[in-house]
Amino acid sequence: MSEAAVAKKNKPTNQVEKDRGVATKHPPRTREQKNAEKQALAMWALLGEGGEAYGGKLKPEIKKAEREALLKLGLIHKTKQKNGAIWLSTTDKGWDWAEQHLNEPLPEKNFGGTFVLRAWLTRLSHFLQVRGFRLSDLFLDQSVPSPDKPAAQHPPEHAELRERIRAAYQEVAGGFDRRLLLRDLRPRLADLDRQQVDSALMQMVRDGEASLMQLDYRPDVTDEDRAASLQIGNEPRHIIWISA
């Protein structure tokens, strides 16, 4: 027997299968694992609707077995309506679970996962639009800087611009956490360089202090809105929202 044949014979089975392009089979999942996967999918279906919904109207529908298991774990709360419908809402413990189990295994070959994916992609799209992020931002290096390499500080000019923007916003909007058109904010910042103002606004968005949005109903967009808008990628933003 040749050396090559001997080497092939002595290879572990899984390595031979890999060489042949055959996927290595994983051990079958236990009933407990399958049940946990169904419960996880039910949670993501509910969370995809904002954390509360009628269980029977969700896609996939949250069945009694999953519902009772999630209730027992304290991840959801159940309220029975007069018409017999069951209203489900996510508890604080449920939201904590979601943050810690983003990579939780889900059922394979389950058509219901399509509806969950669609609901979450819709929410992701809205989040990216409001925050002024691009989808590619999710795939950038998210490594946390080491203690000996602190995060870069904003230049002093940013702090001054930020305070001017916040003061102007508060004055025009009558407070924080309110929807304001950029066309109404710009005149209060007319003495400042527009490019610097826009850079400061984008930094505030990245810092989670502000959101920039579009006027969705295009007939409402005036020439003043277009002139005051801030362009992000191929989309103009006409509305600003600054948190307190």
Please provide a written account of the structure.
The chain has 244 residues and is of the alpha+beta class. It folds into two domains: 31-128, Arc Repressor Mutant, subunit A, CATH 1.10.10; 156-242, Arc Repressor Mutant, subunit A (Orthogonal Bundle). The chain is 46% helix and 12% strand. It has ten helices and eight strands. The protein has a three-stranded antiparallel β-sheet with strand order 1-3-2. It has a three-stranded antiparallel β-sheet with strand order 4-8-5. A two-stranded antiparallel sheet has the order 6-7. A hairpin with a 2-residue loop joins strand 6 (230-232) and strand 7 (235-237). Helix 3 packs across helix 4 (64-73) and helix 7 (156-173) packs across helix 9.
Strand fraction equals 5-15%
Q: Describe the main β-sheet briefly.
A: 3 strands, antiparallel
Structural class by secondary-structure content: alpha+beta
Mind telling me the CATH class of the largest domain? Answer: Mainly Alpha
Numbering strands along the chain, what is their spatial order in the largest sheet? Answer: 1-3-2
Give the overall pLDDT as a whole number: 82
| Straight-line N-to-C gap | 78 Å
Question: What is the CATH fold-level name of the largest domain?
Answer: Arc Repressor Mutant, subunit A
- Series of H and E elements: HHHEHEEHHHEHHEHEEE
The radius of gyration is 26 Å
Short description:
With 244 residues, the protein is of the alpha+beta class. The chain has helices spanning 3-10, 13-19, 31-47, 64-73, 92-100, 112-131, 156-173, 182-185, 194-206, 223-228; strands at 52-54, 76-80, 86-90, 180-181, 210-213, 230-232, 235-237, 239-242.
